[in-house]
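User
Here is a favour to ask of a fellow structure person. I am asking you to supply a protein in sequence and C-alpha cell form. Please set it down just below, with no commentary around it:

Assistant
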Amino acid sequence: MNEEPGFYSLGIAPNILETLDRLGFKKPTPIQEKSIPSGLEGKDLIGIAQTGTGKTLAFGIPLLQHALANKNSLVVLPTRELAFQVREAIEKVAGRTRVRMATLIGGEPIYRQIRALQAHPEIIIGTPGRIIDHLNQKTLSLSKISTLVLDEADRMLDMGFAKPLARILETVPKERQTMLFSATMPSEIVTIAKKHMRLPLQIEIARPGTTAERVTQELFFVQKPDKFRLLENLLAKYRGSVLVFSRTKHGAKRINRDIRDLNHTCAELHSNRSLSQRKEALEGFRNGRYRVLVATDIAARGIDVKGIELVVNFDLPQSPEDYVHRIGRTGRASGAGHAISFATPDQRRDVQDIERLIKAALPLSPLPELPPARQQAYVPRDNPAPWGAPRPTSHFAHRRNTSSSYGRPQTTATPAETRQHRGGPSRFSSPRPPAKNPNKKFENNGRRRPFAPRPPRPSYRPTDK
C-alpha cells in the first residue's frame, strides 16, 4: 500500500483506508482533514461548513472506527432523504466490516425499525420525531450511546425540532462525545454548545453565505404568469438534468404536471409525497430516469446527486441562507454548474438580501423570447387571469361538460324552464301555497286527513267478571 499524504495521515484504521482507496477517495476535503482526527480522539467539535463539502464522511469515518471498537453512536438529522443518504455513504465506506445500522424515520413501518433495534446496531441514524416515538414506546434505549452527531443542526431548529432535540440531549449519557455540524451559527446552536458540549473544537471551513466556486449564477426579473414560459425556454436550452425549486408543495405539483405536458420526464419531491414516492423520485432523478426534479426546500440540504447541470429557483426561497443551499446542489465535488433564479419586480428587496449574504451581485439577464402561451400554462393562484380572459379547461371540467350532454338538451334555458322541461314543477313559476287558516281545526292543505282518536277502552272490575 502506497503511503502518501491524505487519508493515511489521519489515523484511520487500515481496513477503512483500503475501502476508501477502492472507492477512489484519495484526498480528504478541508472539513474531513480537520474533523476526522478530533473525531477519532473522542473530542467534541462544531463543524461550520456549507453543503457539498464532505461533512458526511467527516463524522462517518470516526463513527465506523468507534463501531469497530464496540462503541455505539447516534446520528440525528432533519429529513428522511438525508437519513438514507448518510446511511448509504457510511455503508459504502464500511465495506466488508460487519457494522450493524438502524434507520429510524417516519413514513416507514415501525415494526421493522423495532426489529432492527433488537439486533443491537452500533450506529443509529434517525430523525428527531421518530426517535422520540421510539423513546416513548420504550423500544429504544440511549444509555449506551458514546457518540452523538447532530447533522444540519440549524435546519432542524428551523423545522421546529428544538424540543425533541432537547429531550434527546437530556436522554443520552452525560459522558459522551458530541459532534455538531451546521451551515450557520445561530444563537440556538451557541446555546446547545454551551449547555451540552465540553470545550468543543470549532472548525469553520467557509463563512455562512459562501457559494460554490464553480457555480455561475443568473437572475431574471419576470412577471408571475410568464414564469413557466421562461422555464420552458430553459428546458429547451439546457439538455442535462435540471433541479427546479418551488416555494410551496402545491406549486411543485403544478409545475411537475405542466413540465410533463411538455413531454419531459419529471418527478416531484415534497412532504405531501409518501416515503416510497420520495425515494422513487430521488432514485429516478439520480439514475437518469427523470430529467427534471421539482422539489421544495426539503431537497435543499444534503441531497447529493452528481451531475446536476442546472438549478432553477422558480420561486425565491423563504430566507437568503436557503438560496445558498439550493444552488449548492449543482457544482458538487469541484464540478461546474449553473443556477438561475426567477424574481418578480416586487421582490427586489429579497434579491438584495441574498446579495448582501453572498457579498456579490447576482448577474441580471434580459428576458429571452418566450414561447407562445399554452392553454395549460402555469397560472399562480394569487394572480388569476384577467376578467373575461379564456381560462384553461381542466380535465375534470371537460368530463363534467361532456357527461352533461348525454341525453340532455343543450339549451340556454333558465333554471325554471329547465325544470318544466324535465317534467317537474318549477318553484319559480308555481304560485305560493295558500296561507293556513287559524280558525280551522284541521288544516291539511290537501294532505291526508288525520285519523280520529280511538275511544278509551272500558275498564273492568273483578266483580264484573
